Here is the input.
Amino acid sequence: MKPTRTPRVKICCIGSVDEAALAIECGASALGLVSNMPSGPGVISDERIAEIAATVPPAIGTFLLTSRQRVADIVEQQRFCRTNTIQICDHLTVGTHRDLKNALPGISVVQVVHVTGPESVEEAARVAPHVDAILLDSGNQKLAVKELGGTGRTHDWTLSRAIRERIGIPLFLAGGLTPENVGQAIEEVGPFGLDVCSGVRTDGKLDATKLKRFFSAVRDAGAE
Here is the structure.
């Protein structure tokens, strides 16, 4: 079954007010703002995240990417950064998704599932009833230095599709997406949304030409 709608696009690793404005101008429905991480690109200070989030129109998702694992710490961070969405890039160790939702009414909660094998399908199915969306990425939480995203690698999209078919909430697909492969990703997975960082950048900076090519490829895939 092919997707019947054009997926929303989240541009991740936004580093400045100007990058946020460029991403929105090109068609982004959401922006990813990366706080402190054990590895990966795009990390900015919580002060910068708050500055950028304050300039973004309310209809655009502002995703705070957090590696924090205690609900109380995530709540404190969101209240400082004032984003409308929290993207949990690791597992919660203290507190539950329900605790987070109760503490922050009106704030969307997105859980990242790193697709490493068939066990990821079960993990996504377990967490889906408790969050607003699942985001699939290509990291690995089990490494000595955790990879919590921004790897620029694709993963097994047949597993991503299996997850989409199991869960009843929106699914974002991340991991190594580019203007060249995003059409195939849409066809194989049928995601609600797409998440891209390195695939629309040149030397770490958001590239307007690559952005436009990415959005064009997404529209073409949605129109077929």
Remarks:
- Confidence is low (pLDDT under 50) at residues 143-147.
- The radius of gyration is 16 Å.
- The CA atoms of residues 88 and 170 lie 15 Å apart.
- Residues 8-223 form a domain with the TIM Barrel fold (CATH 3.20.20.70).
